[in-house]
Specification:
The protein has a single domain, classed as NADH Oxidase. The chain is built from 5 helices and 3 strands. By secondary structure, the protein is α+β, with helices and mostly antiparallel strands. The N and C termini lie far apart (43 Å). Strands 1-3-2 form a 3-stranded antiparallel sheet, with helices on both faces. It comes from Vibrio algarum. InterPro entries: Nitroreductase-like (IPR000415), Nitroreductase_HadB/RutE (IPR050461). This is Malonic semialdehyde reductase.
Length: 122
């Protein structure tokens, strides 16, 4: 909580459960709305996955601009949704602090797996 309060910006990465209604504008090539109409679980899963990818793109862009990022989960999504998105079809996924971190508070680079230890080719 202290890191979030100290960050210049905290972004709520969220997704819209009714994203598919904007597909005629966003994907005018063909009507894909029937894939989602009347399928709330499918809409929610698709929105969540694509929203997560968009959040990752935001973090990559912030890093490319030289900003430090601090993605966070483990908070009450319900409280965030009730506070910021009440009456909408938006749902929070994760939070992300953006700014320039205190160098003394940053973790050093943690261990990483070798490619061969976590990936396979089929």
């Amino acid at each position: 909580m202290d890191k979030m309060r100290a960050a210049p910006v905290t972004v709520i990465i969220a997704h819209d459960l009714e994203f598919w209604q904007k597909l005629p504008f966003l994907f005018p090539h063909e009507d894909r709305t029937p894939l989602f109409r009347g399928k709330p679980e499918y809409c929610e899963r698709t929105a969540f996955l694509n929203g997560t990818l968009q959040g990752a793109y935001l973090m990559i862009a912030a890093r490319a601009l030289g900003l430090d990022i601090g993605p966070m989960s483990g908070f009450s999504n319900q409280i965030v949704d009730d506070t910021f998105f009440a009456g909408t079809t938006l749902r929070s996924n994760f939070l992300c602090n953006l700014g320039y971190a205190d160098e003394n508070a940053l973790f050093q680079k943690l261990p990483r797996f070798e490619f061969e230890d976590v990936c396979t080719f089929v």
